[in-house]
Specification:
The chain is mainly α and 129 residues long. The protein has four helices and no strands.
C-alpha cells in the first residue's frame, strides 16, 4: 500500500531545524540564508519558505542572557581577582567581553529558536484532513 500522506504534514525534526537555524540557513531546505541583516529574518530565496512567519519574540535574548551568564559570569565569581581588583578594572574588563559574547551568541540562538518553531509548525500551516 502506498502512503498518500501530505508531505507538508510530515513530522519535522526539531534537532535538524535548530542545527540549520544555528548555521544561519533556512530550516526547511538548508540552502537559503536565514537572515537578511544582523537579526532580520528573511523568506528563503531557495525554497520560498516563509521564515518570517515564525515569531521568535523574546526567547532569543532570554536564552542568550542565560547562556552567557552561565558560561562567563558564574565562573568569574570563583576567581579571586574579581573580588580584590578595583571595581573600575573589573567592570572595564568584563563588560566588553560580555557585550561581544552576547552579540555573537544572539543570532545563533535566534536561528535555533526559528528552527525549533519551524519544526513545531504554526497552526495555520497544518492542514486538517
Amino acid at each position: 500500500m502506498v502512503s498518500t500522506a501530505n508531505p507538508a504534514v510530515e513530522k519535522r525534526s526539531m534537532a535538524l531545524g535548530m542545527r540549520r537555524g544555528m548555521a544561519f540557513h533556512c530550516p526547511n531546505c538548508s540552502q537559503g540564508k536565514l537572515y537578511r541583516k544582523y537579526l532580520k529574518v528573511q523568506d528563503c530565496p531557495a525554497c520560498g519558505n516563509e521564515n518570517s512567519r515564525y515569531p521568535a519574540d523574546d526567547a532569543p535574548p532570554y536564552f542568550t542572557i542565560l547562556i552567557v551568564g552561565h558560561l562567563v559570569v558564574a565562573p568569574l565569581l570563583f576567581l579571586r581577582w574579581i573580588w580584590q581588583a578595583p571595581t573600575a578594572l573589573v567592570v572595564g574588563t568584563t563588560l566588553p567581553a560580555l557585550l561581544v559574547l552576547t552579540l555573537v551568541f544572539l543570532p545563533v540562538v535566534k536561528g535555533a529558536v526559528v528552527g525549533a518553531l519551524w519544526s513545531l509548525r504554526p497552526r495555520d500551516e497544518v492542514e486538517e484532513p
